[in-house]
Design brief:
Elements (H helix, E strand, L loop, with lengths): L1 H20 L1 E4 L1 H11 L1 H22 L4 E9 L5 E3 L4 E3 L3 E12 L1 H68 L5 H36 L6 E4 L3 H4 L2 H6 L11 H21 L5 E13 L12 E8 L7 H67 L5 H36 L5
Parallel strand pairs: 1-6
Antiparallel strand pairs: 2-5, 3-4, 5-7, 7-8
Helix pairs in contact: 2-4, 3-4, 4-5, 4-8, 4-10, 8-9, 9-10
Length: 429
C-alpha cells in the first residue's frame, strides 16, 4: 500500500513538472530576453557572423604557406635503360615529397579587407535583428494585453445586454414593453456574442505570433504578468519627440556605410589586377628504390623556386573592369545619399505620427469616459420607461465603437513609439 502511494505521489510530481515546462509566466522584459535567446531568426543571424568569420580566415589563409605531402610508387616491370656498353636497371621505387608554397598579391590583401567588412555587416545585421525581435515582442505583448482588454470589455457589455434582455422580456410579459423591443435587444446580444468569439480568436492569433517570436511550441501556455497601465508610459513616448536623431546610431545607416566601403574596396581590388604577383615554393624529395641493383637517381632532394608575374596587356579587360567598379561606386554613392535623406525624412514622419497618435489617444480616452456615462444614463432612463430600446441599442453600439476606437488609438500610440525608438536606436546610446 505504501509503495502504491509513493508511486502515485511521484506521478503527480512528474505531471506537475511537465505542466510547468509547458507554461511560461513572462513580464515584457523577460519575454524580450527569452526571445533574444531562443528566436530562430536571431540564431541564423548569429550563424551568419560565424560564417563571415570563417570566410575571412579562408581568404587570409591564401596568403599563408600551403604545405602538402606526397607519396608515389613506381613499377617499370623490370625495364632497364640501354646505354650501349652498359645498362641501368630501373627498379621499383617509392618517392616521398614535401612542398611548401606561398603566393602574395595586392588583390589578396584587399580580399581579406573586404571579408572583414562583410563580417562587420553581419555583426550589424545581428544587432539589428536583435532590435527587431525585441520590438516585435513588445508589439505583440501589448497587442495581447490590449486584445485581452477588448475581450473583457465585450464580455462586460454582453453581461449588461443580457441583463437588459431579461428585463425587457419581463417587461413584455407584463405588457409594459413591446415584443419588437425584446427582439431588437436579442439581436444585439447575438451580435455581441459573435464579437466576443471573434475577439477571443484574435487574441489566440496574437499569442501564437508571440510564441513564434519566442521560439516556443504552439501548445505552450503563456501568461503575461504585466498590464497595459503598468507598461504604457505616455511621458516616455512624448519625450522621444525631443530626442535628437543621430544617424550613426541607426543600424540601417551603418549598413549603408559598410556597403559604401565595400564598393570602394572593389575599386582597389580592380586596381591591384594591374600589379605583379609573387609566388615562391620549396620542395624536398626522397626516393627509395626497392632493389639492391645499381641504378641512377636523377631526382634532386631539395628545390626552391620563385615566380614573378607582371601583367602587360589584357585587351583593355582590366581597364574596363576598373571603370565598371568606379561607376558602381558612384552608383552606390547616389543610393547612399538618397537613403540618408530618406532616413531624415522618415524621422520627421515618425515624429509626426507619434505626436498625432498621442493626441488621438488622449481624445479617445476622454471620449470613452463620456460615452460610458451616456450609456449609463440611457440605461437608467430605459429601466424607468423614459427611453426606448432603440436609444439603448444606439448607445450600446456607440460604446462598442468608442471602446474599439480607444483600443486602436492605444495600439497606434505604442506602435508609433516603437517605430521611432527603432529609428533612433535608443538602446544603442
Amino acid at each position: 500500500m505504501q509503495n502504491r502511494i509513493l508511486v502515485l505521489f511521484l506521478a503527480v510530481i512528474s505531471f506537475s513538472a511537465l505542466k510547468a515546462q509547458d507554461s511560461l509566466q513572462l513580464s515584457l522584459s523577460e519575454a524580450q530576453t527569452f526571445a533574444l535567446n531562443h528566436n530562430r531568426e536571431l540564431k541564423n543571424a548569429s550563424l551568419d557572423i560565424k560564417i563571415a568569420e570563417a570566410s575571412r580566415w579562408q581568404a587570409l589563409a591564401t596568403m599563408l604557406p600551403q604545405v602538402s605531402l606526397t607519396a608515389d610508387y613506381t613499377n617499370m616491370f623490370g625495364y632497364s635503360m640501354d646505354l650501349g656498353e652498359f645498362k641501368i636497371s630501373m627498379p621499383n621505387s617509392i618517392t616521398f615529397g614535401a612542398t611548401a608554397a606561398v603566393a602574395l598579391s595586392g588583390a589578396q590583401v584587399v580580399g581579406v579587407q573586404m571579408k572583414k567588412i562583410a563580417g562587420d555587416m553581419a555583426d550589424i545585421t545581428h544587432k539589428q535583428t536583435e532590435q527587431q525581435v525585441a520590438d516585435q515582442v513588445k508589439t505583440l505583448y501589448f497587442s495581447a494585453l490590449v486584445t485581452g482588454q477588448t475581450v473583457e470589455l465585450l464580455e462586460k457589455n454582453l453581461v449588461n445586454l443580457e441583463k437588459m434582455k431579461t428585463y425587457t422580456e419581463s417587461s413584455v410579459a407584463v405588457g409594459i414593453s413591446e415584443q419588437t423591443d425584446a427582439d431588437r435587444i436579442a439581436v444585439q446580444v447575438a451580435s455581441m456574442k459573435n464579437g466576443v468569439n471573434s475577439a477571443r480568436r484574435s487574441l489566440e492569433m496574437v499569442y501564437n505570433a508571440l510564441r513564434l517570436q519566442l521560439g516556443l511550441d504552439v501548445n505552450t501556455e503563456l501568461q503575461l504578468t504585466q498590464g497595459v497601465e503598468e507598461l504604457l508610459s505616455v511621458n516616455d513616448a512624448v519625450a522621444l519627440l525631443d530626442s535628437e536623431f543621430m544617424l550613426n546610431n541607426n543600424f540601417s545607416y551603418q549598413l549603408l556605410q559598410e556597403n559604401l566601403n565595400l564598393s570602394k574596396k572593389q575599386i582597389s581590388l580592380k586596381k591591384w589586377e594591374f600589379a605583379p604577383s609573387l609566388t615562391a615554393f620549396y620542395s624536398y624529395t626522397k626516393k627509395e628504390f626497392l632493389s639492391d641493383e645499381p641504378t641512377m637517381n636523377s631526382t634532386p632532394p631539395n628545390m626552391f623556386g620563385m615566380s614573378l608575374k607582371v601583367p602587360i596587356f589584357s585587351s583593355w579587360s582590366r581597364m574596363k573592369g576598373l571603370e565598371e567598379a568606379k561607376l558602381g561606386y558612384q552608383k552606390q554613392l547616389n543610393s547612399y545619399d538618397t537613403a540618408r535623406e530618406s532616413l531624415i525624412i522618415q524621422h520627421r514622419q515618425l515624429a509626426y505620427n507619434l505626436s498625432s497618435s498621442f493626441e488621438n489617444y488622449e481624445t479617445q480616452k476622454e471620449n470613452l469616459v463620456v460615452v460610458q456615462r451616456m450609456l449609463n444614463n440611457v440605461s437608467q432612463k430605459y429601466e424607468q420607461g423614459m427611453s426606448s430600446s432603440l436609444d439603448l441599442t444606439n448607445a450600446g453600439t456607440e460604446l462598442i465603437n468608442a471602446q474599439s476606437t480607444y483600443v486602436q488609438s492605444l495600439l497606434d500610440l505604442v506602435n508609433a513609439q516603437i517605430e521611432l525608438e527603432q529609428l533612433l536606436n535608443t538602446r544603442n546610446n
